[in-house]
Amino acid sequence: MDGSDAYLDRFLALHPKEIDLSLGRIERLLKDLGHPERAMPPVVQVAGTNGKGSSAAFMRAMLEAAGRRVHVYTSPHLVRFHERIRLGGRFVDEDRLAATFEEVERVNDGRQITLFEITTAAAMLLFAREPADLLLLEVGLGGRYDATNVVEKPLASVITPVSLDHQKFLGDDLGAIAHEKAGILKSLVPAVIARQDAAALESIEREAAKVGAPLSISGQDWQAREERGRLVFEDGDGLLDLPLPRLVGRHQIENAGAAIATLRAVERLNVETRAIEVGLSSVDWPARMQRLSSGRLPTLLPTGAELWLDGGHNPDGGRAIASTMAELDERSPKPIVLVVGMLNTKDSDGFLEAFAGLAGRLYGVPIGSSTAARAPDEVVAAAERAGLAAEACGSIEEALAKASRAAGPVPPRVLITGSLYLAGEALAANGTPPG
């Protein structure tokens, strides 16, 4: 039996496009596999542009604190594909993943299918064969025609904040993109909707009315806010006074709120307040305002410097990250330095303009793990259009070394950002991959 990487390489050749949104191919394969999607644990499906993974991470932490066994499907991975499939608290092991890939490859028999579709079918086989109380199923791209949207009756649906991203596949405006995200809504299945732009919310509400999905909307039916160093969650069932999330950033208040609202919307889960508190304090989600305080990369910076990592890559993500960096600066001022790599499918100008007036310097770096990466010079040009002083580098390590040499009397706060692919490379280089 080959290793999982060999199967992934072969799967890439099964379709001429990396992304081809459709349900027909995966429905055919799932049928041939005996419909594992119908034998999976109860599903909570999560769509959205920003905050999907964080909201799922909050739910997992709260459910596990309540003693539940939870599977998770998420994408993309940071370092290894295995991160996408979590079985009862652990990433799928290599032998089991490779054996399942071998099975789906044999059943597919060389027919055309995308990488995401065939690996999603493999994940569903694994989830169906391993008992659990719940499966948190994160949408890959969009929702309506995403390969995960084959579950006929989930326990609940979640739509996190919708913003401009993947316009080539989903549409050029928020209403069109939200329409695709809302394709996960199902008749009589409760749907929790995080705070949205008005155009996005209108599109979601229209789709919910069409299919008959009851909505619980942030700012209307529930709200999460920070008060006096605490997270206050309020809905029709009352008010919870909770600790702030372990994940850094004001945007994580809304992500945590969506998680809490979802668990309270599904009565059969019966998650007590104490488990919610423990989940908020113990949640872990790599590359989302993650402080790298150990490993190889921090040693390249001067004593007293800080190194942070975030995989944000669209304009709304940039604004959320910049806001968090500004909050950190208010509490403990340090010169802010950015190390940025981005894909050519992303709005670099829109992402970087959020940091104008905040970051003192930017180093553009390559992303070796993606053929769609922008050259460092292109990142620098976008930074300069945003009014940032910028310089191209050949690697993360070179950028950190230059930041160290340029440091003044106050050691810098360095943020590596712009892409989840870059975040994965940083974690691998640091010797601290997700575990």
UniProtKB/TrEMBL annotation:
Belongs to the folylpolyglutamate synthase family. InterPro entries: Folylpolyglutamate_synth, Folylpolyglutamate_synth_CS, Mur-like_cat_sf, Mur_ligase_C, Mur_ligase_C_dom_sf, Mur_ligase_cen. Pfam families: Mur_ligase_C (PF02875), Mur_ligase_M (PF08245). It is an enzyme of class 6 (ligase). It comes from the Bacteria. This is Dihydrofolate synthase/folylpolyglutamate synthase. PANTHER family: DIHYDROFOLATE SYNTHETASE-RELATED (PTHR11136:SF0), FOLYLPOLYGLUTAMATE SYNTHASE-RELATED (PTHR11136). Residues 46-262 form the Mur ligase central domain. The keyword Iron does not apply. SUPFAM superfamilies: MurD-like peptide ligases, catalytic domain, MurD-like peptide ligases, peptide-binding domain. Residues 304-419 form the Mur ligase C-terminal domain. The keyword Zinc-finger does not apply. Keywords: ATP-binding, Folate biosynthesis, Ligase, Magnesium, Metal-binding, Nucleotide-binding. Pathway: Cofactor biosynthesis; tetrahydrofolate biosynthesis; 7,8-dihydrofolate from 2-amino-4-hydroxy-6-hydroxymethyl-7,8-dihydropteridine diphosphate and 4-aminobenzoate: step 2/2; Cofactor biosynthesis; tetrahydrofolylpolyglutamate biosynthesis. One of its GO terms (biological process) is tetrahydrofolate biosynthetic process. Functions in two distinct reactions of the de novo folate biosynthetic pathway. Catalyzes the addition of a glutamate residue to dihydropteroate (7,8-dihydropteroate or H2Pte) to form dihydrofolate (7,8-dihydrofolate monoglutamate or H2Pte-Glu). Also catalyzes successive additions of L-glutamate to tetrahydrofolate or 10-formyltetrahydrofolate or 5,10-methylenetetrahydrofolate, leading to folylpolyglutamate derivatives.
